[in-house]
Amino acid sequence: MKYPVTDTFTRCFPLCLRLPVCVIAVFTWSVQVHAQSDTAENGKGLTRNLIEGGKMQGFLFTDVKGIRLQFSGYVQADFIHDFSEIGNIHAMQPSTITVPTVSDGNTAFTIRQSRFAFTAFGAPDAKGRALKAVLEFDLWGNLSGAPRLRHAYIQHGKWTFGQYWSNFMDGDNWPNIMDYWGPNSYIWTRQVQLRFTQALSESMMFSVSAEQPGGDISIPSTWSSKTIYPDVTAAFQKTFGVKNASHVRLSGLLHPIDYKNGDADTKTSIGGAFNISGNINLSKNDDVKFQFAYGSGYAKYSEDISGQGYDGYAAANDKSISNISMLATWLYFDHFWTKSLGSTIGYGYLQLNTPDLNMPVGTLKATHYGSFNTTYYFTSFFKIAGEVLYGKRVNTDDTSGDDVRAQFSAFFKF
């Protein structure tokens, strides 16, 4: 539900000026906070990268018969205002922005990012292989905050079984943002999978996986999607630098897209892509994080447009689908002013190549995403942040719509 608002800011500033005005406001706030006494521990212990990577310690719940059960999680409250109309009011999703721009603001207060997890550590087996199982939930199930399963997996030595981050994505380069979904072009999805990981040296790792089948396609009503062959991924990651704080990751994807056409013929189109990503630690206070992915038929793995049918397309008179090419890239910079104050700025771009597919007018062509924030860490478990975001959707007929969002968040981990 939208809640139209009219205020002085909306009336007096055109949309193109609101982003720089909001950035200046957040920067001014950061300078004021900076002047406070620095009593917190290093904020790098509470970054988004550590949170999403499951590297935060919880507390021991029980220890019985060789199994240690750990409980962890966090509470996050988000206070969000959009200056233009957007479909997703709880995360910046540029593909849902109304085209053309509609200056109809909305305010949302939400705790849906909050999450909790149970982690069980089993005693090593006879060969010394570690054993771990994880169940993790957030409150993204509905607008009222119903629990939703995020992760459910078992790790036994080099093997992973269950639902976890796809091996095609880089789980070690999250920019330090507060927005739930992050850059529009992020290769970000959870998949049920069977994964094998092999350390090649102290600084090199190789992994391969078979992952949840299924295509994300736009097809006529007389066709049907099938799930026959699993996705296959492979990844190589190299760490380097001081304390191995930097890394580069190269991953590849084969994505079979199975379907039955109007003649009841079962067919498979092979999608595929590569993904180059990483984190470059410039100093103890500075990190550059990036991703560059390209291929066709892999929109299923995209943060912004997954579930919207952009793996492939077929018109009513076609006999087979055509895969849609996609470029997905982003660049972010994390900086700590002090051990308790940090800022993050970056930009993401996603583009689809659809001119030869005769798709309907108004089909998505590209999306843009930009954000800037300042975060203050009161302690090693509590932080607040102010974040300004910008999103834009461009259609194939070159019509577009954009939105500026202001967000304030409070975060407490346990």
How is this structure best described in words?
The chain is mainly beta and 414 residues long. The protein has one domain (8-413): Porin, CATH 2.40.160. It is built from three helices and 22 strands. It has a 16-stranded antiparallel β-barrel with strand order 2-4-5-6-7-8-9-12-13-14-15-18-19-20-21-22. The radius of gyration is 22 Å and the shape is globular. Residues 1-13 and 23-40 have low confidence and may be disordered. This is Porin. It comes from Chitinophaga ginsengisegetis. Keywords: Signal.
Offer a concise description of the structure:
With 414 residues, the chain is mainly β. It is built from three helices and 22 strands.
Main features:
mainly beta, Porin, 16-stranded antiparallel barrel, three-stranded mixed beta sheet, 22 strands, 50% strand
Gyration radius from CA atoms, angstroms: 22 Å
The count of strands amounts to 22
- Strand residue content: over 45%
| CATH top level label | Mainly Beta
Structural class: mainly beta
Write the CATH homologous superfamily. Porin
Protein name: Porin
Keywords: Signal
Organism: Chitinophaga ginsengisegetis
Signal peptide: 1-35
Topology:
Blueprint: H1 8-12, H2 15-34, H3 48-52, E1 59-64, E2 67-82, E3 106-110, E4 115-122, E5 131-138, E6 148-156, E7 159-165, E8 190-199, E9 204-211, E10 217-218, E11 224-226, E12 231-240, E13 246-260, E14 266-283, E15 286-296, E16 312-313, E17 322-323, E18 325-338, E19 341-353, E20 364-377, E21 382-395, E22 400-413
Parallel strand pairs: 10-16
Antiparallel strand pairs: 1-2, 2-3, 2-4, 2-22, 4-5, 5-6, 6-7, 7-8, 8-9, 9-12, 11-13, 12-13, 13-14, 14-15, 15-18, 16-17, 18-19, 19-20, 20-21, 21-22
